[in-house]
RNA sequence: GGGCCCGUAGCUCAGCCAGGACAAGAGCGCCGGCCUUCGGAGCCGGAGGUCCCGGGUUCAAAUCCCGGCGGGCCCGCCA
């Protein structure tokens, strides 16, 4: 139900407007300064002392004017006071809850406050290389990206989620070569063998890549001097052991054929040729690579569905190239004053762009955080052999995203290791006259996910796939659900366990600030205690069951004096913060803030409910009040959980 | 060598952007209680801290500035 605003949100908004006008501070700043203080001081507070001095107003004057403004808006059930420089506001709980539950009765539901100026926002995320299965690092990207998209939507923005399929370049060419040697179609072969297509491709890619690296190393060994020989030999030994490990996991008896071919042909030449011909869109390379990548994407979709992520658009990098968008971009670059020849290759003069376009304009410094004292080298656009580079194609793709979606903002969820190259793309856009795009392209960076004790490598086939991980989480979930629901049908248990799995995984990956590297600890994800997705689900299920046992809520018979109870009051006030908390999480692009809030709400609910029975309360007025409160909490939990991708459950 | 990010309880982290009621907050783990009352994936209580170090700004610093130290990442005609 839109158009109706709960009294707490209304109050905060009015206060913010008032302080913003009175102290001449931006409305946004006034909003975030209004914070819930420690409970004994009240429900909302504002640090007056910072602004009072020099404003010409007195404390009393401020308090009385604000009180008048709130009364005008129908917020008369408050008390205001000033204590040690803070202005504190406290709601009178019976009137507050009467207004809230009257709203509920007329159809109001807790939801994120809508943005005053809705935007169209593209969220590009995951965009994993389509040559091996998704792993845990991608899952962090997906969890963050999908949650941002949901937060933006809830905030009232138009959202377009996109997956960039990185099919141009060396990696897909290597995987394609492998399948060409084997003479099988990845999709049908996967079906025949009964393996997931992305896993099949992952193996062929790793095997082909490793063989390629061994051949390359052997070539270098021949030319190497004595000092280098030992190092190269060690490298070869390590590659050989990788190869033998791959042989052990050979899904279709392929290794012999790959080795045989590689002894008779020059693999490197073949890879180069595939790359060149694919970039021109020539068959059979075109259909070969497309069939490999399509098979992987099929596997991706299946995995992504398990954690609740879907995409509006799938963009093939090759389409960007073939559609001549890259060519047009290069034309533009050649006509630019920042076009230079660097070491014999076509390039953009990034240092000059910084010097001339960024430095003189302080308003751009925030959006283009150029490292001080650090020289960013010119950006090479075209290789000497005429093929384009990833970054060049990414510039063209960035423009495409803005145009195609008519986007106001583009948020790219990409690892922190790509900060510099993302900055280069932005600066290139700026230099080529795409200032609006450059300013509104945001690199949402997140740190890597490490596995305890080892590193991941797609080229060597060393990774824990997301599928394996989800299966492990699910087997724990199954036993937990089964233990508690021995009489439920198998199908139901499966379904609930799958949702617990999704909830546990997404929660674990989104609760920590994206700036912190995570060392992935399976035990932590399998721990369904407090501070976990299942904890929220469990709390939601508990609330559902209480309401189920209570039966329909009779709002008409509520006795509002039942609100005079410290713990019920605390729960009510906390639940009513949801609309603004989730709005701020969206604006700050900080899913972890919403997570922290939901856990806090669950904590407060869990500590209240065993002490203050709902269904056993003999007084119908109080009983219905408490049921309405439980229902409010349940709806807030449900809304918030959906935004972070933790499926709410009625029973588990 | 330079740049960016991180450094808060044994462990994992929140608070820092927007300094103020912080004598610093969670979870895990640890210690001790609670299964005859709505779901124990829970509840109640306890121990546990030089907020990396040193300066500075301020009436006020975990928070801002400067300088160190430690860890990660990045500095490609790879993607």
Explain this structure to me?
The protein has 652 residues and is of the alpha/beta class. A 5-stranded parallel beta sheet has the order 6-5-4-10-11, with helices on both faces. The protein is globular. The model has no long low-confidence stretch (mean pLDDT 93). The structure holds one RNA strand of 79 nucleotides.
What is the strand and helix layout of this fold?
Elements: H1 7-23, H2 27-33, E1 44-47, H3 49-52, H4 59-72, E2 78-83, E3 86-91, H5 93-105, E4 120-124, H6 136-154, E5 158-165, H7 170-182, H8 186-193, H9 197-223, H10 226-248, H11 255-264, H12 267-279, H13 285-306, E6 313-316, H14 317-322, H15 325-334, E7 339-342, E8 345-348, H16 350-358, E9 379-380, H17 390-405, E10 409-415, H18 419-431, H19 435-439, E11 441-446, E12 449-450, H20 466-484, H21 490-510, E13 518-519, H22 522-526, H23 533-550, H24 566-575, H25 578-587, H26 591-608, H27 620-644
Parallel strand pairs: 4-5, 4-10, 5-6, 10-11, 12-13
Antiparallel strand pairs: 1-3, 2-3, 7-8, 8-9
The structure holds one RNA strand of 79 nucleotides.
Short description:
With about 650 residues, the chain is of the alpha/beta class. It has helices at about 5-25, 25-35, 50, 60-70, 95-105, 135-155, 170-180, 185-195, 195-225, 225-250, 255-265, 265-280, 285-305, 315-320, 325-335, 350-360, 390-405, 420-430, 435-440, 465-485, 490-510, 520-525, 535-550, 565-575, 580-585, 590-610, 620-645; strands at about 45, 80-85, 85-90, 120-125, 160-165, 315, 340, 345-350, 380, 410-415, 440-445, 450, 520.
Mean model confidence by pLDDT: 93
Number of helices: 27
Low-confidence stretches: none
- Compute the gyration radius: what is it? 29 Å
Largest sheet: 5 strands, parallel
Kindly estimate the percentage of residues that lie in beta strands according to DSSP.
5-15%
- Distance between the terminal alpha carbons, to the nearest Å? 29 Å
Strand order in the largest sheet = 6-5-4-10-11
Q: Which structural class do you get from the secondary structure elements?
A: alpha/beta
Global geometry: globular
* Annotation, overall tally of beta strands: 13
Q: Residue share in helices?
A: 55-70%
């Amino acid at each position: 139900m839109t158009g109706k605003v709960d009294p707490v949100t209304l109050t905060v908004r009015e206060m913010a407007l008032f302080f913003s006008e009175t102290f001449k501070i931006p409305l946004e700043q006034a909003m975030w300064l209004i914070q819930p203080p420690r409970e004994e001081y009240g429900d909302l507070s504002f640090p007056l002392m910072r602004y009072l001095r020099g404003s010409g107003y007195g404390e009393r004057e401020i308090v009385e004017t604000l009180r008048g403004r709130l009364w005008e808006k129908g917020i008369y059930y408050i008390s205001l006071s000033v204590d040690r420089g803070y202005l504190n506001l406290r709601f009178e709980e019976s009137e507050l809850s009467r207004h809230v539950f009257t709203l509920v009765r007329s159809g109001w539901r807790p939801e994120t406050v809508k943005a005053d100026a809705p935007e169209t926002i593209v969220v590009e995320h995951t965009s994993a290389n389509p040559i091996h299965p998704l792993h845990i690092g991608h899952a962090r990207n997906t969890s963050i990206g999908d949650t941002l998209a949901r937060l933006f939507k809830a905030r009232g923005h138009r959202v377009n989620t996109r997956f960039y399929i990185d099919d141009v370049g060396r990696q897909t060419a290597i995987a394609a070569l492998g399948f060409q040697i084997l003479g099988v179609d990845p999709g049908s072969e996967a079906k025949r063998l009964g393996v997931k297509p992305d896993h099949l491709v992952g193996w062929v890619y790793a095997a082909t890549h490793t063989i390629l690296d061994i051949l390359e190393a052997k070539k270098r060994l021949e030319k190497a001097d004595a000092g280098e020989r030992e190092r190269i030999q060690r490298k070869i030994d390590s590659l050989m052991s990788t190869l033998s490990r791959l042989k052990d996991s050979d899904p279709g008896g392929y290794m012999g054929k790959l080795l045989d071919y590689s002894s008779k042909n020059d693999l490197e030449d073949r890879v180069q040729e595939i790359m060149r011909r694919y970039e021109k869109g020539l068959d059979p390379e075109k259909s070969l690579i497309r069939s490999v990548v399509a098979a992987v994407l099929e596997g991706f979709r299946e995995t992504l569905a398990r954690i609740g992520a879907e995409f509006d658009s799938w963009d093939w990098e090759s389409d960007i190239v073939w559609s001549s968008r890259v060519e047009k971009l290069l034309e533009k670059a050649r006509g630019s004053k920042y076009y230079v020849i660097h070491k014999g290759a076509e390039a953009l003069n990034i240092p000059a762009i910084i010097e001339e376009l960024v430095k003189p304009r302080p308003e751009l410094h925030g959006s283009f955080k150029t490292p001080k004292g650090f020289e960013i080298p010119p950006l090479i656009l075209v290789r000497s052999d005429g093929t384009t580079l990833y970054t060049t194609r990414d510039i063209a793709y960035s423009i495409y995203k803005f145009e195609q979606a008519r986007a106001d903002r583009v948020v790219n969820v990409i690892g922190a290791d790509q900060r510099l190259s993302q900055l280069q793309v932005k600066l290139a856009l700026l230099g080529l006259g795409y200032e609006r795009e450059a300013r509104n392209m945001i690199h949402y960076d997140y740190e890597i996910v490490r596995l305890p004790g080892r590193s991941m490598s797609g080229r060597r086939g060393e990774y824990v796939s997301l599928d394996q991980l989800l299966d492990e989480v699910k087997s724990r979930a199954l036993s937990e659900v089964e233990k508690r629901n021995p009489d439920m049908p198998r199908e139901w248990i499966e379904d609930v366990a799958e949702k617990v799995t999704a909830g546990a995984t997404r929660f674990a990956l989104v609760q920590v600030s994206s700036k912190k590297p995570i060392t992935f600890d399976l035990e932590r994800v399998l721990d369904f205690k407090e501070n976990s997705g299942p904890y929220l689900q469990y709390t939601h299920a508990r609330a559902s069951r209480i309401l189920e046992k209570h039966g329909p809520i009779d709002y008409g018979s509520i006795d509002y004096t039942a609100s005079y109870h410290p713990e019920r009051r605390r729960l009510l006030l906390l639940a009513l913060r949801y609309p603004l908390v989730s709005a701020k999480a969206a604006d700050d692009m900080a899913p972890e803030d919403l997570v922290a809030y939901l856990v806090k709400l669950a904590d407060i609910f869990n500590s209240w409910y065993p002490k203050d029975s709902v269904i056993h309360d003999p007084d119908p007025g109080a009983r219905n009040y408490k049921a309405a409160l439980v229902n409010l909490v349940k709806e807030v939990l449900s809304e918030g959980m959906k935004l972070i991708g933790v499926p709410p459950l009625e029973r588990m």
